[in-house]
Amino acid sequence: MSGAEWQLVGFSLRMALASLLLILPIGLALAWWLARKDWRGKALVETLVSLPLVLPPVVTGLVLLQLFGRRGPVGSWLHNTFNCDVVFTWRAVVIALAAMSLPLFVRAARTAFEEVDVKFEQLARTLGAGEWRVCFTITLPLAKRGVLAGTLLAFARALGEFGATIMVAGNIPGRTTTLPVAIYQAVENGEDTHAWTLAGVSAVIAFAAVFISEKLQRWRK
Amino acid sequence: MKHFFTVVFGSATLLFTAQNEIPAAQVTVFAAASLTDSLKQIAAEYEKKSGDQIAFNFAASGTLARQIEAGASADIFFAADETKADALEKKGLLVSGTRKSLLGNALVIVTAIDTPAIHSPAELTNAAVQHIALGELKTVPCGTYAKAYLEKLQLWPVVENKVVPCESVRAVLAAVESGNVDAGFVYKTDAAVSKKVKVAYEVPAVDAPKISYPLALLKDAPQPNAAKKFIVYLDSEPATAVFKQFGFIVLASAPAK
Amino acid sequence: MAQVKDAILTANFRKQFPGGPEIVADDLRIGGGITVLFGTSGSGKTTFLRCLAGLERPETGTIFFGQENWFDAGKNYFRAPRKRGVGFVPQDYALFPHLTVAGNVSYGLNEMPAAKRAVCVTETLHWLGLEGLENRLPRELSGGQQQRVALARAVVRRPQLLLLDEPLAALDTPTRQRLRGKIQQLLRQLGIPTILVTHDRFEALALGDRMVVVADGHNQQSGPVTEVFNRPDNLAVAHIAGTETVLPARVLKVADDIVTVAVGDVKLVAMATDFPPEATEAHVCIRAEDVMLVADALPTASARNRFSATVVAVERDGPLLRVELDCGFPLKALLTPQAAAEMKLQPRAAVGVLIKAPHIHLIPR
Fold it and tell me: Is this prediction's pTM over 0.90?
């Protein structure tokens, strides 16, 4: 593997990790709400969160493009206020990865939270703990393994994300080209060896992540 | 339970092996993206006159070449770049003697209608210009042409970091239209079709690299006779009139190298 | 119902579980000291406790603790558990499995500066005899130790109300008996108003000052523990309080505080203040431990009720023996094994029965 190829892998890993920074807080909050609370529009929220799992990734990419493009609601605000562009930059990569992997994480984390016996949370409340403290000192630690498994799954999914990424971040070598996009481009260019090398790396990382995730999920029992 | 599986498996097999209905003579043309509007109009008129059907696959010339190499079924290859046709010819995928360079084009820099104008290529180096859309260098001829031009002007090293590669010249156009890039390189003929961009600068013919559109019959064409007829039509007066109308340069009819 | 003077907690509420029982607190008043919520399993006593702790929200009603309003359905007001200052110990202790003993006990002291917290924790652990266990995890502790850690965790915060749900139920009998005394000592030392749920009579007698009987989800009689046991207001309470012999009787004569009734052919003399003179029938309640047996002929004795009986069966009841007698009506007595041995009690043996008048409790019909 050449230096450029290693750089590519490094870039993809960094982007996937950065997307976790978005996924974890939002995903944990969502998972906790879905696991512990009941409210009128709950089914709608559940559906929305699961949508990126089922929609064609390019559709998600399209939605993101509309939102974050320079003329879109969020994109125009960012551009005018901070002179900050999202589309065609690494920021778009992170957002696309986060959007596509969030549902996987939320599912795993929600199950993990649901398996924490409510009685511990209730008792913590009688001891003076507010909701934040209950979540961080009781629910999360007891749901640790499931949440970790979900994180690994989300990480693996982010590494493999293609459709939404290419729509909203494009394919700019060194700046937004991720592993899957590079593989696609290599095939387009007829660079078969390059494509297979990258595919191999992709497969190894994905295998490791899913394997450990499965082990963790089984360990919970 | 047994019957359930038989039905499912049987249906899947049927669906998988079903052929689409192929009408009498359908000619498949793989053509460069920049030819989209002009070819569609020409084909509509031709279909009325000849009774044959024309099916198109518009994409970057490099993408099309790759698909043909991989065995995609097509009759005619109409690229925006001679090197793409050379590659196929080397692999023996073109029918010798049928290749001709039909059209030329001009390179332009476009910006979105509502963005401030750029008056010269040198302005591309300004800080205000953050993203420049170019066709993907390895697959889109327009991108290669643009890079060659910028290298000639010695602007490429500065401008290289701002480049956003796009998968076809139409993708470049769309990127500029959306406002997500500040400028882009397309053909003059593409700029003409879009109402949302304006031409900021037309590269003079003397400075531009030689843009040439080769056209050829493919060796494994399913409908070689109907295809030959269409190729002849493309070089004839009704078709060339349409090309000129869209802004293409019609090269003198001469067999290519 | 005997009213509590200076009630600390008053509750009136209804809690309905969907598709399940309804729990009704009807003018429930609880004072200082240790109050036992007594009832059989499934009677709803745990739900009462959880409603008071704020872990369940009733549909209607109010709960007041002193001047604090903890719950008012009418104003849609519900005070969260963490603002009620209660110490709650559930039946299965619910010790946080991922925290050590020290971690569990110090959990409620988050607001305290670290140094002071450590001192409090150490003191409380010492007081409950848990020194040396600070770094153990709950799963490494015995049942008795877990129970004391749960207690420590609840009391270290100096709550204003302590709620204990069947504190000894999860323990084996020897441990239970051993801890019963210890807990009584601890609770008295603490001096915190306590509500203790149990179905065990001995626990109620040992630990409680006052008692509230819960039956079918409703609070019934309340009063000092021995009074409720000895003078049940109605049959439901009598059954729950575990009066062994409850029989229908005809009222023969009511003269001042002495009431004479007949159960079958046998006349019984009872002491009953405020017995309604117009009542013609009553239920007779006799506790097994109040029945005295004599081996030979009936002596002259101060007990007003003296008659013969035949032994029907002898069974062990924990450390004691339960004797079923036939006196013309079924009667149960509780004896020590030594006494039974001395008297050579066996089925079909003839004995004499002595019962003092105050031990015959009447429930007018």
Answer: no
